[in-house]
Structure formats: C-alpha cells, structure tokens
Specification:
CATH superfamily: HUPs
Distance between the termini: 15 Å
Radius of gyration: 20 Å
Shape: globular
Strand content: 5-15%
Number of helices: 15
C-alpha cells in the first residue's frame, strides 16, 4: 500500500489493500459505484431474466437435439458449479456432460459433492487427471517466483482443460457458475493475476521449473477467447445471472436435495486454495480475498457490513487446521515445512516482474466493457 493512508469503504469492506481503489465524497469505493451504475441496471433475475435464459435453453436444445449431451459444465464441487448443474438438469431439462479437472488438491467435501450430484441427477462425468509431477513442478515454480497468484497453475488447468475438451469434442455450449450475486466485486489483479496469461505461466516455469509440461492443459487467451469462440463456435452461458441466486439458500437446497457438504468459504473446496487464500496471501502479501467475496455479498444484500467486518477480523484458519495444512502442503510439494516457511519469508514479487500479456488483457477488457460483456471492475 506504500505511503497511502489507510481507508475502508463506508458501504462495503474493500480497502486500500487494493492500491488502485478510489473513493468518492461519501467514502464509497469505485466497486460500489460500478455495481450501481454498470451491473445492477443490466442484471435481471425476475420474469425478464427467466424469459432470456429460457430462450437460450431452448436454442441449445434445438441445436443439439441429436447429441448425447447438449452442453458441458465444469464441476468443481463448489456451490456455484454445483447449483448450475442442478438447474441445468432439474429446472431447464438439459442433458449436460459434467467435466472435472483433478489437479491433486480436492478436499473430501469436493469429492463427496461431485459424487452426490452425479448419482443424484443421473449425469455422466468426465474427469481429467492432471499429471501430478508436472502440476507439482509448476506450482513450485510459482512459489519460487514469489508472486501472489499461486493458484494460477490450478486455475489454468481448470479453464484450459475445459475449453480444450469442448473444442476437441465439438461442444458448442459451456455453462459456468460465474455470477454477479457472489462475484460483483472482483479481486484486483495485484491480488490475483489473470490465470489465462500463458506467456507469464511459461516464463515463470522456464525460470523456476525443472521438467517439461508435456501433458499439462494449456490455452492462450487468444485461443479460447477468439479461436474457440469464433472459429470453433464454443459459447459460454452463465445461468446464475438470469435467476435468483442467493448463496446460502442455494447451499441449503443442495444439502437437502443431494446430501451436499458445505465448506468454510468460497473456493475452499480445494485444499490448496484454502491454504493459499486463507493463510499465504494475507500473511505474506496483506491481501485477504474475503474482502472482495464479502463485499459482493454486502452489495447483493446477502450479508450486512457489520457481519462482514466481524468475519474479516478473525483469521480464516484455526491454528490446528493451519498446522495440519502447512505440513500437508509442504509434504505434497516435496518440501520440508522449514523450506515452505523460507519461501513464505522470501522477497515479494508481482506479475509485473515476469513476462506477461497485460497490454493485450487490458485491450480485451476495454473491448468487452464497450460491448457490455464485461461489467465488473478488473484492474
């Protein structure tokens, strides 16, 4: 944060741990103002939204009538992708193929939730297992690079695997759990840089990796944003933006309907992500992603600011679980606990310290905002 005086938004709980945050005279941040101006007026979860998603669903059914599956859903075992799966089959009558990337870090809850949905809905599941030695090598490279975005290897494997599978198998529609309800406030790029920047991934791996990525799922941003979309015809649908989606209610519905298991916080269905977001990022870099997650819930009326402040004041981890995860993460990565702690104490870097496609990303974001396809702030 440099020498900037500390300030926290008077409406949500985003603060100057985001170095680019701007406040107005009321003390409201630009995320809040962007929500009011660019998201809320265009976000319809009433009769209009229902009509729009129904039209999309009917189009998918018509076009894919002769196929065994009419769409593809990436399923992590988290609430967003789980609820999309439930809606697709039960509410919309679609025939999705479920696609899961096993990057080696699934929690017990994630495994249970995937199994419960597959069995409960009678759906087919395709699981792509990432080569563990390659995955471990790439994750270690990111640790050694000392950047905040340690989850890039997992995230890149997830979306690259999904898009590559769709393009290879002639899938035209991907349904995702992306939504405004829990994600209208996006983490700034200094906290979590674009996982789709293949140039940066390759540069960090070239500097710190020790083995070639022969089978690891890879996809350049131009490949999946341009080639797959306009030449392969792969389209992304976000059903949760058309229907009422209240996180707590959705989780309870999944629990009651399937025996789905809750987990502590957003993205914590991955044991690595829980460690990275709950401990590594806030203690090493001063970035707590819960600020963005809770702020989204505040703006969408699912949490009060007082509740968010009380939650953020407490560590995401209890000491016993942290100690267990620290040893588990170190051992799985082939490190001692002392070696992992030494990496934690190393000099902090940013995405700017390595080759990147930030210029291209910024241009793409501007184009998407101009066409109304990107409304959340990404900076």
């Amino acid at each position: 944060m440099g020498h900037r005086l500390y300030q926290i938004c008077n409406r949500c709980i985003m603060d100057t741990s985001d170095s680019g945050i701007v406040f107005d005279t009321r003390g409201w941040c630009d995320y809040c103002n962007n929500y009011d101006t660019n998201i809320l007026p265009h976000w319809h979860t009433d009769v209009r939204g229902e009509r729009e998603i129904r039209a999309i669903v009917e189009k998918i059914k018509r076009e894919r009538a002769g196929e065994e599956h009419d769409c593809l859903i990436g399923l992590s075992g988290g609430v967003d992708s789980s609820y999309v799966t439930y809606l697709a089959k039960e509410k919309f009558g679609l025939r999705p193929l479920l696609y899961h990337v096993d990057a080696g870090w699934n929690s017990q809850q994630a495994v249970n939730n995937i199994e419960k949905l597959v069995d409960g809905l009678g759906l087919d599941l395709y699981t792509e297992v990432v080569d563990w030695p390659e995955m471990r090598d790439l994750q270690l490279a990111f640790f050694k690079a000392q950047v905040p975005h340690l989850d890039t290897p997992q995230d890149h494997a997830f979306f690259a695997g999904l898009y590559n599978f769709a393009a290879k198998n002639g899938v035209k529609y991907i349904q995702t759990g992306a939504n405004y309800s829990t994600e209208c406030v996006r983490e700034p790029l200094e906290w979590h840089y674009h996982a789709s920047d293949l140039r940066q991934l390759r540069d960090i791996h070239r500097r710190f990796g020790t083995r070639p990525l022969k089978s690891f799922p890879l996809a350049d941003v131009l490949k999946f944003k341009v080639y797959y979309r306009f030449f392969k015809g792969v389209q992304v649908v976000k059903p949760l933006n058309y229907v009422p989606y209240i996180k707590e209610q959705a989780m309870q519905e999944l629990v009651d309907r399937f025996g789905w298991q809750r987990y502590a916080h957003k993205h914590y269905e991955s044991r690595f992500t829980r460690f990275y977001e709950g401990y590594w990022l806030p203690t090493k870099f001063g970035y707590d992603k819960r600020r963005a997650h809770f702020s989204s819930l505040i703006l969408t009326g699912q949490m009060t600011r007082e509740e968010a402040l009380a939650k953020i004041a407490k560590p995401a981890y209890d000491e016993e679980t942290l100690a267990q995860d620290f040893e588990y993460i170190a051992t799985k990565l082939g490190l001692t606990v002392a070696e992992l702690r030494a990496l934690h104490g190393g000099p902090n870097k940013t995405y700017r310290d390595y080759a990147n496609q930030m210029g291209l990303m910024e241009l793409g974001t501007k184009v998407l905002r101009a066409f109304g396809a990107q409304r959340a702030i990404i900076r």
